[in-house]
């Protein structure tokens, strides 16, 4: 079942166009079952998550936007929820941010899987693998490489992936590098589900703290991250969030939904 067939199977009403990107409008448990089916059928599928920041980058970088057409895109964060309310009159069924969804998916999948990790620093990737093994011990977690490799090292990394051929490959290189790397380099001979996970491995390793649970429940984790790293993230949130909503208003006025 290719990505087009997957979209057809969900039905047109199960997809929402956010700034030209088709985002799956699917409940958490249904998304877990879909990914499990893909693994069972060994259906190679690229997976990523769309939030306001990623959407802004896609508006500015045509190659990234084009690459997302070949990904199963899941909704992440309050920004895309607000966009869905404005454009379609209803939010997405669930917030499927990768930081929470990926560990939940691994815990829910009882069939033993091989999960590769690539990205961040070697130390953080190793620590994340240990944390994931504690959360979902039925699976094997293998650190393939850190995220700081040269073009000369890439053939060796891809060959290792061919030999290992993990069921899932968690790629943590930041947006848009991780999606572009997946799009340019990975095929079914390397893994079944490559998932672009952003800062997930840094969060799991403890290198980057997460917001308190009450802030996450209120959908305010972005505020916590901004307070934690204002110098790096102010443009993403203070400038990026209003820009994203302005673009959504323009999409609404254009009638492109």
UniProtKB/TrEMBL annotation:
The keyword Transferase applies. GO terms for molecular function: hexosyltransferase activity. Keywords: Glycosyltransferase, Transferase. This is Exopolysaccharide biosynthesis WecB/TagA/CpsF family protein. It comes from Pseudaminobacter salicylatoxidans.
């Amino acid at each position: 079942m290719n990505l087009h067939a997957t979209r057809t199977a969900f039905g047109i009403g199960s997809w929402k166009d956010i700034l030209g990107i088709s985002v799956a409008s699917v409940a958490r448990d249904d998304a877990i079952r879909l990914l499990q089916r893909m693994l069972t059928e060994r259906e190679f599928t690229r997976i990523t998550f769309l939030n306001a920041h990623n959407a802004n980058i896609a508006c500015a970088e045509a190659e990234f936007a084009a690459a997302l057409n070949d990904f199963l895109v899941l909704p992440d964060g309050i920004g895309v929820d607000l966009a869905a309310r404005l454009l379609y009159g209803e939010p997405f069924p669930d917030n499927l941010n990768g930081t929470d969804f990926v560990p939940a998916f691994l815990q829910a999948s009882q069939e033993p899987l091989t999960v590769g990790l690539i990205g961040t620093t070697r130390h953080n990737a190793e620590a994340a693998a240990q944390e994931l093994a504690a959360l979902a011990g039925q699976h094997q977690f293998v650190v393939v490489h850190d995220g700081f490799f040269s073009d000369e090292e890439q053939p060796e990394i891809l060959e290792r992936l061919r030999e290992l051929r993990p069921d899932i490959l968690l790629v943590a290189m930041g947006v848009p590098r991780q999606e572009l790397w997946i799009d340019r380099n990975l095929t079914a001979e390397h893994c079944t589900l490559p998932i672009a996970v952003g800062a997930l491995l840094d969060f799991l390793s403890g290198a980057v703290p997460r917001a308190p649970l009450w802030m996450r429940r209120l959908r305010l984790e972005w505020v916590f991250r901004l307070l934690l790293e204002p110098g790096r993230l102010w443009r993403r949130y203070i400038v990026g969030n209003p820009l994203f909503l302005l673009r959504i208003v323009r999409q609404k006025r254009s009638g492109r939904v």
